Amino acid sequence: MDRQAGSLKLFLDLETPEQVHEAIVRAFGARYVVWQRFDPDFVRTWDRFPSGFFEHYYGTDADRDCAVAKAVRLRWPVFSFSDARAQIDRPQTAPPLAVRVWEAFGIRDGVAITGGRRNVDTVTAIAFDDGGDAKRLRPADESVLRYAAALLDQFLLEADEQLVSTSRAPASLSQAMRAVLQVAIEQPGASRAEQAAMLGISPRMLEKRHSQIAKRFGVSSFAGAVAKAVRGSAEGRRA
Questions:
Q1: CA distances in angstroms from 115 to 20, 220, 235, listed in the order given
Q2: SS3 state of residue 227
């Protein structure tokens, strides 16, 4: 049995998003899976990504200038992260913030499949950890990926209780707040005192800015939601 047929067989008779995730891992060697639905005011997300990824990604507005997100908005049918970056990102001396966020969580490449129905747009993305890239996939795998994405559409389009809602409104953070978030992303192992030193502020001022960020988004702690990603539409509105 060839690889495509073997992969497709893994997706037959599945009944839950978790089973689709497991089948994707087995079929393609991907480690992470995310599905999103785009409503007028919110992005609704079901994901098996590293903990904290979307808090950082949306909290710093990295999505606004992310090549992967731009390709999704353009409704590219099936594409790799690396191809989107090569075609959309302008040459620059340092990697864009979005790329730094992805890499900070151990993700260097992946594949996105746009979908949806009844005027509702969705995207399914599979992502590889530091040891993998989308070049391992063959053109024949595209139909299997489309089938997997269609299954997630089927299971999740109406399953709001399983989804995390993130406001699509800009974060409206001050430059100082953005600097705090960027240090948290780029130096996750640094202590608070070390992060404060990098920013040229006191540890007490750093704590104050953590509190300001949490208050801005109506959440109880900086660690709990580095800015935007909160659970439920009521919590998704900015404070």
A1: 16, 35, 27
A2: coil
Reference 183, options 213, 148, 138; nearest CA is 213
At 87, list the tokens. Answer: 């075609």
DSSP 158: T
pLDDT in tens, 79-124: 999 999 999 988 776 788 899 889 888 898 999 999 998 789 999 9
- Cα dihedral 39, 42, 48, 49 in deg (nearest 10): 130
User: Residues 147, 12: contact at Cβ < 8 Å?
Assistant: no
Residue tagged 């060839």 (tokens): 2
- Average pLDDT (60-73) is 90
Helix pair angle (17-28, 142-156), 10° resolution = 170
Spatial distance between the Cα atoms of 54 and 225, rounded to a whole number of angstroms:
9
